[in-house]
Amino acid sequence: MADGPSLAELRREIDRIDAAMHALLIERSEIIDRLIRAKRTQESGSAFRPAREAEMMRRLVERHRGILPLDTAESIWRVIIATFTYVQAPYAVHADLSSGESAMRDSARFHFGFTVPFVAHMGAAAAVAAVAASKGDLALVPATLVAGAPAWWPALEGEREPKIIARLPFVERADHPAGLPVFVVSRSAPDAMVREVEVWSVKVAGWGVAASRAIAPLADVLAVPDRVSDGAALLVSVPQGRTLDEIGAALVAAGASIASAALVGSHATRYTVAASGLVASGR
Predict the structure, then answer these.
(1) The pLDDT of residue 277
(2) R_g (Cα) of the chain, nearest Å
(3) What is d(CA 146, CA 247) in angstroms, rounded to the nearest whole number?
(4) CA distance 110 to 112
(5) What is the pTM of this model?
(6) Residue spans per domain, the chain
(7) Is 199-263 CATH 3.30.70.100?
(8) To pair with 80 at 20 to 30 A between CA atoms, which of 11, 73, 108, 258?
(9) Measuring CA to CA, which residue among 143, 128, 67, 134 is closest to residue 95?
């Protein structure tokens, strides 16, 4: 029986692969350089392409195999994508740290790397305001409520205001190293958006436990009650196959009603990694 390759031969193979990967990164950068020259436009909004990136990350998970942890492969691709986006159109990431600094920094660095500038804020409203004053920056805002915090999403209602363009992580799993659910807020070109889940800023009259229970099966909801007016400001993520009209009907049946509603963004359907592969969660 012939002997297998020696350690020296295996290490030479690793060196060859390392050199090939570096050469491919350089080749990618040259294509990006050509892309920049081909554009030659002053597009408003971020170069972040949420629709394309969500699909890229899904394909990565689907084709992944072997002993390399999925976390490592995903983080490498995220840094490559975010850095080349930054090369095309420099931007900063404004992060709301009010839900916990460590988890938010992990999310920002995992998804955007260390080349992209990181700007800390204490409160979602401050992060969103910074993005509104910029051309192409991003804000990372927790997709859960921080106790006592006001509703931040009404600031997205105007036609010229930034919008929710993504929800991270693109692919969820129980042991994700950057698993904090966050919304990405920015300005983005209409053709870059993914519209699988619509996100609405909704003001509700007659809000209470019954109304909350009525719409819980239909959509993901963040709610900041207004005890003075017996109403609430909601951020409602409406999944594919559902409509805001259905949610309005459920509210009416529970004794509440929609006073106003404005579309404030959209994002990809949430996917999770299960034993059977990639599974859509529906929201």
Answers:
(1) 65
(2) 22
(3) 24
(4) 6
(5) 0.90
(6) 41-194+274-280, 199-263
(7) yes
(8) 11
(9) 128
